[in-house]
Design brief:
By secondary structure, this protein is mainly alpha-helical. The protein contains 6 helices and 3 strands, in the order αββααααβα. It has helices at 5-22, 54-78, 89-103, 106-126, 128-141, 146-165, and strands spanning 27-31, 41-44, 143-145.
Length: 166
């Protein structure tokens, strides 16, 4: 079955939402309302890359990179054939710039990125119920605000814990 553009965009944005919330970032809004230049967006807290401590800057960059990678990872899991490299070019460029800013060397940044990609894939696998819940709500509602996102994530986590207790 061919997946609709709305569904694939919803899973992509839901991946960003789950990636961000898993890293303790607040998601302000997410939407699959298409414009001339984008199929959707997710707005969340920016990383604190101005921290004096280099370890803090690295952790902040990693949180942001996981959030950036999570969109494509979720979309690929939902519909592998729907992913086009150009769709995530902005996300990947931002991730590369963040990693180079903290690693200082292209080779190390590339290896660091591969490790974070693996972490992100595992994260999306473990939180797939959250991705599905956000994506389904996005398809239905088109845009979700901070409160709606928080309620969806909390509700899905409660349901997941309840299933584990059974």
């Amino acid at each position: 079955m061919r997946k609709s553009t709305d569904e694939t965009s919803a899973y992509h944005e839901a991946g960003h939402v789950v990636g961000a919330t898993s890293q303790g970032l607040t998601v302000r809004e997410t939407s699959i309302v298409e414009t001339e230049t984008i199929a959707g967006f997710t707005q969340n807290d920016d990383p604190d890359l101005e921290a004096e401590n280099p370890d803090i800057r690295r952790i902040e960059a990693e949180r942001a990179v996981i959030t950036l990678y999570a969109g494509e990872v979720a979309q690929r899991r939902f519909s592998p054939r729907s992913v086009r490299r150009w769709q995530a070019v902005n996300d990947l460029a931002k991730a590369d710039a963040l990693l180079q800013s903290v690693d200082g060397c292209a080779d190390i940044a590339e290896a660091h990125g591969k490790w974070l990609q693996l972490k992100t894939e595992k994260l999306i696998e473990q939180r797939w119920h959250e991705v599905e819940a956000v994506a389904e709500a996005l398809v239905e509602e088109r845009s979700l605000n901070e409160d709606r996102i928080a309620r969806l994530i909390r509700s899905t986590r409660r349901k997941s814990r309840a299933r584990k207790l059974k």
